[in-house]
Amino acid sequence: MLPCSTAAAGAIENVLNDLARRLGHETEFLQAAEEILRTVGPVLDRHPEFLRARILERLVEPERVVMFRVPWIDDTGRYRVHRGYRVQFSSAIGPYKGGIRFHPTVTLSVLKFLGFEQIFKNALTTLPMGGGKGGSDFDPKGRSDDEVMRFCQSFMTELFRHIGADRDVPAGDIGVGTREVGYLFGQYRRLTGTFNGVFTGKGLTWGGSRIRPEATGYGVVYFAQNMLERTGRHLAGMRCLISGSGNVAQYTCHRLLDLGAVPVTLSDSGGFIHDQDGIDPEKLAFVMDLKNRLRGRISEYVTRYPRATFTASEGTGSGPGQWQVPADAAFPCATQHEIDRAGARALVAGGVRLVVEGANMPCTLEAAHDLMAQGVLFAPGKAANAGGVATSGLEMSQNAQWTSWTAEEVDRRLREIMRRVHDQAWDAAEAFGVPGNYLAGANIAGFTKVAQAMLEQGLT
Ligand code: NDP
Q1: By residue range, what is the domain housing residue 154?
Q2: CB of 333 shorter than 6 A to ligand 1
Q3: pLDDT above 70: residue 319
Q4: 39: closest CA among 16, 62, 63?
Q5: Does 109 reside within a domain?
Q6: 201 lines ligand 1 (CB under 6 A)
Q7: Are residues 177 and 224 in the same domain?
Q8: Measured distance CA(302)–CA(429) in Å, rounded
Q9: Domain final residue pick, 165, 195, 225
């Protein structure tokens, strides 16, 4: 908890205790709520009107949660049923905006955690977007294109009545790439008879924005550059650990290579590869083809590049061994809770001085605090990966204006936005007495903006 008055601390504890009492099983959401609330005490001291208006109590309740059944038929003719969700958390500063995730680990708690984080991330982008998240426990891995299409069509057959270009604009996330967005958007168009910017991450020929696929990973690297600039250091020559091998990991790797860094690991849920010689552009192109077209496993990397090693994971995740590889910087880009306290210790022991979260909350709260306590420069996902949703915002602007910008134009705007996200987090941390603490700074800046909007709009 950041230092604050007993009144503010008491209010925060009351809200957290009440959540824990009612929602003890929603561990991911409780962590997200705790992470944010424990950093906003000093804001409440400066704005006692937020306490009177019960901003905290209102903010932790989603405005709406939609849960639905998703029935579909697999290729063998068997009937199947999954669970679908959309958490519309806050529309205080704009229409709900946030991705759709298809992964077996999806639960209401995971989506509430992601939707809650999204509120503050979107506020940091300086674009008018509220926070939401959705998804299903369906796993597209190993499913045929036809099966994925039938699932997406069934999912959208319920979701379409709850979303809209001025209401709720979903995008992709884990397990939802251009293919799935295509099937979801196609069904929306068919059901509503409208063609509008209801989804972002669309294909280039049907309303998508240039640089949207690259945006999250590029933005992560731009954020890292902004952080290093403050210390007079550069990414060139830095050995980097990257986890994941999906969208965010691929384009993080891509931009790191452009800047002369040396990525040495990638992973998926089966384990991680370590390439001492560095993952160069040709090797990255192999991984992108393997993952995006062939839908293969990262373990196949070592068949092609036998000097690299593959370490299988036990249970879920790429495995803690990845964080023991000696390096200068780490970019966790797979999923939540990849780095716990042991992982953080391993990173520090291996020489890592910079950790930039590409995924959403890949570090547990304890791991994040341990890293900062050891003097590691640490960027939370809600700031560092905001480039994806920011470029989704740019896609919405282009759709609304019936126009399409060049790649250079979108990239220029992305860089500017990442600079603003960085500076807001940096400035807020300084203004509230915790200089260099990006975690607190991002929370404070995002929270203040949303709380102010809620106050000005009355009791909603
Ligand atoms: P992808 O589906 O493209 O890739 C996800 C990668 O992470 C895959 O390599 C996947 O391996 C691995 N992974 C997923 N779940 C697990 C798990 N439980 N344990 C171990 N590995 C896992 O997703 P994205 O790259 O789009 O998203 C990655 C992260 O970035 C997520 O946290 C997402 O919320 C966040 N993010 C994404 C944005 C975007 O624009 N795409 C924007 C902002 C944040 P496998 O294939 O084996 O499952």
Answers
A1: 64-195
A2: yes
A3: no
A4: 16
A5: yes
A6: no
A7: no
A8: 43
A9: 195
Order the strands of the 309-312 sheet from edge to edge: 309-312, 271-274, 262-268, 239-243, 329-332, 354-356, 377-379
CA–centroid distance for 159 within its chain: 21
Find where tokens 């209010």 sit: 11
Query: Is 114 in the same domain as 18?
Result: no
What is the atom index within ligand 1 of the atom nearest the CA of 171? 40
- pLDDT at site 315: 58
pLDDT digits (tens, 9 = 90+) for 34-72: 999 999 999 999 999 999 999 999 999 999 999 999 999
441 CB near ligand 1 (under 6 Å): no
Same domain, 77 and 181: yes
Question: For 188-209, what is each residue's pLDDT tens digit?
Answer: 999 999 999 999 999 999 999 9
Let me know whether 189 and 73 are in one domain: yes
Question: Is pTM beyond 0.85 here?
Answer: yes
73 occurs within a structural domain: yes
Is 223 in the same domain as 372?
A: yes
Is 122 part of any domain? yes
The rounded radius of gyration (Å) of the Cα atoms in the chain is: 21
Is ligand 1 within 6 A of the CB of residue 88?
no
Is 332 close to ligand 1, i.e. is its CB under 6 Å away? no
Q: Any idea what the CATH number is for the domain that residue 160 is in? A: 3.40.50.10860
Q: Note the pLDDT of residue 317.
A: 54
At which of 345, 379, 413 does a domain end? 379
Domain with 336 in it: what CATH number?
3.40.50.720
Q: Look up 382 and say whether it is catalytic.
A: no
pLDDT in tens, 258-312: 999 999 999 999 999 999 999 999 999 999 999 999 999 999 999 999 999 999 9
Tokens 């939802």 label which residue? 176
Q: How many folded domains does the chain comprise?
A: 3
Span between the terminal Cα atoms of the chain, in Å = 28
Distance CA 433, CA 41 (A): 12
Indicate which residue's Cα is closest to atom 46 of ligand 1: 268
Q: Which of 133, 283, 382, 449 is catalytic?
A: 133
Q: What is the pLDDT of residue 1?
A: 87
Residue to mutate, 97, 218, 269, 417, ligand 1, most ligand atoms under 8 Å from C-beta: 269
